[in-house]
Design a protein that fits this description.
Length: 373
Amino acid sequence: MSTDNHAVRDVVSGVVWDEFCESLKRAGQQILRPEAPSDPLDRAEGWRYLTRLLRIGLEMHLEFADPDFPGFFLPSHETGKIGADNPDNAYAFAKISGRNEYVIRGTRGTVFYLSMRSQKGGYETNGKMEETGFVDAKDLHYGPNGEFEIQVSANKPAKGDWLRIEPDSNAIVVRQTFLDRKAEKPATLSIARVGSDAQPAPLSAERIQASLRNTANFVNGTATVFANWAQSYLPHSNELPPADQAVCQATGGDPNIFYYHSHWKLAPDEALVIRIPRIPECRYWNLQINNWWMESLDYRYHRIHLNSHGARLNADGSCAIVLSHRDPRHANWLETAGHDNGTMCMRWVGAREAVHPTTQVIKYGELQKALAA
């Protein structure tokens, strides 16, 4: 029996769905890992995390999966989060093929930072998303109303802006970073394949089988990658050392960003004070609080991050940030939002140098005295 006939048989009989559900079950092992917190809140968020990964995976590998007919969708947002998603970011993702050429058109808007990268790999395959090309919006050419056009191809065009791809490139990721979402206008984007007027074919047995397998692999792979990351932070809990920058870049990081990642854990009467001795020349910085699953805490309703626009500096140019369960009436307070542990992330974007933060766990009753000192 041919491969095509196997797919038809499995789709018609329902085997394809049974395989999909069985594969998804395996992702639950990441939520039950021995080092993962087992309290009701973190466990509940763990199960919700898998449903969020499933929604993102279906968009990525089913609804927007055809590289001949690409479109941008949101791979991280308020209710779908991956790998310390930045609350200041609007992300966009498009599936492509290195054998094709594309054009990205858009208008710049006023959003503070905009970048695009092509990449290969994925969490569903080797756990890596390696860069194959990069464009910083500050280097683009614009029309009178902020319009731009970017050629996406393996070979550099004779003129115009260009995003490089390789034969193995399979995706484009866009980051828009806001200093103040209420005051800034996001860029608008579209992507189209060049040189084809064809229409998409109807959904086939082969495509649905591949899409469901890829989606399940994405859920398993993504959950595993970031469960491993969270576990690796435990030896330096309540500290904030530089992350392995090569690892960050290999899993989808922006080359303009210097990253810090760690774990935090606080008793009810404790606070974590994060001190930045000075702010280096940079385009942007932020610090955010995440749960164990490396999802940013719910920034719709809780103050869980600060950036270069909203953080208040001391007279000497330093910055002190307080993470605690209760409001200490400090300008740079961040909420735990009901959690007693989780992960955290800090970023310098376009910094001339990386100024490393220091941390200190302080009893809540001694906090004001320590901050004054």
